[in-house]
Every structure is written in structure tokens, then in C-alpha cells.
Amino acid sequence: MRNAQRPTDLIGQTDMIRVRSLSELTGCDIWLKLESQNPGGSIKDRAAYQIIKDALDSGELEPGMTVVEGTAGNTGIGLALVARSFGLNMLAVMPNDQSPEKERMIRLHGAKCQTVDPVPFRNENHFYHTAQRLAEGRDDFWWANQFENTSNARAHYLGTGPEIWQQTEGAVDILVSVAGTGGTIAGTSMYLKERNDDVQVWLTDPDGSGIYSYLQTGDYVANGGSFTEGIGIMRLVENFKQARIDAAVNLPDQDLYALSRYVRDHDGIVLGSSSALNLAGALQAAAVHGPGKTIVTFACDLGERSASKLYNETYLRERGIELAAEPAKELVARYRENGERVWRAAK
Ligand SMILES: Cc1ncc(COP(=O)(O)O)c(C=O)c1O
After folding, report:
1. Where's the Tryptophan synthase beta chain-like PALP domain (predicted)?
2. What pLDDT, in 10s, does the model give residues 13-49?
């Protein structure tokens, strides 16, 4: 229990829960670090706090100014709450295909939110370029730039990594994470590998993202698409560059859908889509390394933020998801045979 002076004092120090059903199925201890407990409901609060704190400390950002950021939503929520508690304003630029749950929350925090059409990165109207342009248009605007600003990864090096080390009493064998900016996997992997170089770091990539192919071939190539939000990317950014990754796997929405229902029904845990993909990655890692391993992954945000997609049957049918979920036991058996789909770093 903590008594705080500001919401930002409550960022980090999140609990972990052992996912009993999947731990029993795999013989590994699979832990979820509940980043949904952060005051803004996601792991991005950590990056938001560090980005603003570092910029205030360096004098780049001053009270009264407006923080501008392009975001899939969670970073916008985190920045909005941190900005307010430091006397700053917030303007988020968000693609209009992200869940309305997140856009509403940004506005509830009193921030401005401008939506743009989702377009490829090379298009000047991409949310990233729009945010940059807006920020550069005024002296009292400041661009947070979560992709290239490495205060993002630093948040996880200073907070998330040490917390996992402490919570597992140094027994963590495998870290599994999705990546958007790569801040989480970069900062956490750097810290854990400094403590124990044998910790294995697994990236889970959704369809429609090029990270898995980048690790395999050096080129960003994507197949298909995904309804996950905030993860997957088609270019190399400064935060991701710092990640120390041993293995990567690309997994489809169908698998995260199956796991979201399994842990909801067996463990009472309602996950967001990137978090369910994290658990799918944890199962794949358990199938390769287990049994007996301690695996840590993240509940990146509140499950409610995926209500309109992952928990909406009409939407799922439109996306071609088979609603009769594959039992987790069969998923594990399939992942045991999936070995060749896993990319492994050269030793
Ligand atoms: C729901 C969700 N999961 C995961 C991530 C990825 O985190 P990172 O940017 O640290 O790679 C994000 C990033 O925005 C997110 O919104």
C-alpha cells in the first residue's frame, strides 16, 4: 500500500500474478506483471513519466507548455495524466482506427486529441509526422517522440527490469514481450541481462508487423494484419535498437483470441489484445525451454481497452476469427511442433 502525493508517484511497483492454468499446463511458472495497475491503466505510464521528467530536468520542457505526441492511445493517456500533474498541457495525435476506449480516456484527462486517417509511415499525414509538424509549429509545443526518445527505454531499465528481478528473487529465466516502440523490451532486457546474461529474451510479433522478418533477414516485411493495437512496427527506431533479444516468434490473432478466452474462463483475468499475445509468446517459450522455467511477461493495459475489438464477436467475425477457441492444451501441443517458426539469435 502506498500513500501518494501525485498520481505519478503510483506509476510502477506493479504486482505480478502467476497464471495458474497455463503454468499447470506447461510445467513452467508463467507470471504476468500487471501493468494495467498503473494510474493510466497501461505500461506506457512508465515511459510517459520518464520522458516528461527527463525533459523537465534538462530544461527542454517548462511548465505551461504543451506536450505533443503521436500515439496509438496508451502513451497519450499516460502523457495526459503526467502532463497535468506537472502543470503542462497535452495534445495527442491518434489514428482513427484505434479503439474509441482510448481516445475517450485521453479526452477525459482534459487533453486535446486530434485523429488522423491511418496511413503508411511514408505518407506525410501519418500520425507520427503530424505530431512532429504540430510540435515544431509553435515554441510552446514540445514533441515527446516516444519512438526515438530513449527516456522511454530508460523507464524500463530503471523500473520494470529491477522490479522483475526483485519480484522473482533473481529466478527469472525468460522474459517475453511484444514491441511497439521497443521501450519495454529494450530497457527490461538490458537490465535483466546485466544481472544475469543467461536470461532469455523473447519477442512476440503480431501479423502485419515487420520486426520478426527484420530479425530474420534485416528487412521489414509484413504479412497479413492484426487487430492488436500499439504493437508491431515497420522501421528501426532508437528504443528498439537497445533491445537484447534471443528469440522471436510471429503469432496470429487467432491464437491470442484463444488465450484471452482461456485465461478469462480459467483464471478470471481479462486481457487486452497485446497482453494476450504476450501470453501466447510465453506459451511458445515454455514449449521450447520448459518445463521448470520461470517466465515473466506483461499485462500491458486494461482488458477493457480491447472491449470493442477482442471482446466484440461481430468485429471478430468480420476479421475472420474462428469463434470456437482452440483449447490451450492443443495450442501448447502445436507450439511444441512449431519450433522451426522461432527465430533464434546467433550465439
Ligand atoms: C497495449 C500496448 N501494449 C504494448 C505496447 C508496446 O510497448 P513498447 O512501446 O514499450 O514497445 C504498447 C505501446 O504503445 C501498448 O499500447
Report:
1. 8-301
2. 999 999 999 999 999 999 999 999 999 999 999 999 9
